[in-house]
Amino acid sequence: MSGTWLRIAGGAGLAAAAAALSYPWLFRRACLTWGATPAEGARELPGDDLLPSPDIVATRAVTIGAPPSAVWPWLVQMGSGRGGAYTYDWIENLFGLGMHSAGEILPQFQNLKLGDELPLGPGRPRMRVEVFEPERALSLRFEDHNWVWTFALFPADGGTRLLSRNRIATPYASALIRWFGVLVMEPGSLVMERKMLLGIKERAERLAAERVRPDPAAPART
Fold first, then answer.
1. Which of 41, 57, 215, 218 has its CA 20 to 30 A from that of 179?
2. Class of 60-211 per CATH?
3. Digit-coded pLDDT (tens) for 25-82
4. Domain locations along the chain
5. pTM of the model
6. Angle of the 186-212 helix axis to the 68-76 helix axis, nearest 10
């Protein structure tokens, strides 16, 4: 029995090593550009100039069957102690981020403006609003200026293309930490960000449908 388990463990180890070795060449691009077209990945977005020489750029996108006006409210209320991040709260809260994804528009968090600072979580670095173009672009820059996160909205086919771009610099990271980021953090970020983008899509489409739904209390037209 022990020999069987050793063979299983050895096979699993070899599979994990093969995946780790092949990821940078075979899967990394797809991981960093999930949902985005090559043109979108190459497109200059507001906020790119805030970190002109990043070590990592991830541009991910989703098509939303709703206008930008139904997407924007979900973006401006994001954050710890606010509307959350619409992803796997239980994973984020394992790291003490205090995220609780809202399922409705929260009026008290709709007054975001240029220069506001948002906490990543209790005791964590803060993000400053550096670009604020309502229904077009929102860029957040972290305190150490080594991470810029931009959301950009583009009308498309009666709906919206939502792009999420992360530009990250790792000037002080060792080679081991850089490899850990590539092999572990990048795939992990795809899992979380994919859920976030799909969460925004679901919420925005629901909001758009509610806005056009007839009010049952309204008098019938004759």
1. 41
2. alpha beta
3. 456 788 899 999 999 999 999 999 999 999 999 999 999 999 999 999 999 999 999 9
4. 60-211
5. 0.83
6. 130
